[in-house]
């Protein structure tokens, strides 16, 4: 089969399309003929060596395709062996594409329990883009964040897959949503998904500016690591939900304002199969637009796709198609 393989850690140039052996079938696993694979920032960290993946390695967590055994159109849940405790993953938990070959290939082997039918009406690209960001955002907003209709939510960033999914899901359940962004154009696109507006984070006073717009937020969804700034926009008793550190690896917080503010600081990651079931049920109950697809590249152009993702100019998900 054809696959995008990295033989070393580094920049996008380490991704090269090669012929590799097909994965071997085994009990409890299914082979999926990949029709589309979605890129995530997680893949960039894998490529850079952040997860010490074995080399040579095929990255890729998200995918959709055809189950070779049944002929069914399926999506891949990249969260493997979460366990039965919904509060946190168990010791065997891993993400597809970290230590095992991922979805940047014509075929991928996946535990059968991690396959679900593709929801009706989705293209292959939209189906591939749904599981990782969908489950991650569902867990962040609802399982961990306890978001309810009528509450206010600030999403840091407006262009990536997590942000666009967060705006869509929160608006669908009746929350009031705002965003931050590097460009007015992305804020305008977020409005089309249901956001009420946003501010440019290049302005050092953006926390005060966005707080003035909404009067304080019940929840801030922070995928970049700006904890101190996020706390400045929360109302008393608000929740800061953290799921990334793309802008900062450390944070310094003033302790007294934190506890006098009665704030919750909630860490979260990709979720379990129960979170996926909750996401699919939400999509059944509410009118939620499909995942925003920004650009589609051939599998052989994985390097270019990663360059596009890291460039930060896109709005929505970047897709590879074998």
From TrEMBL:
Keyword Transmembrane helix found: yes
Residue ranges of the TM segments: 153-179
One protein family per Pfam: ADH_N
SUPFAM superfamilies in UniProt: GroES-like, NAD(P)-binding Rossmann-fold domains
Protein origin, superkingdom: Bacteria
Domain called Enoyl reductase (ER): residue spans: 10-320
UniProt-recorded name of the protein: Zinc-binding dehydrogenase
Organism: Actinomadura physcomitrii
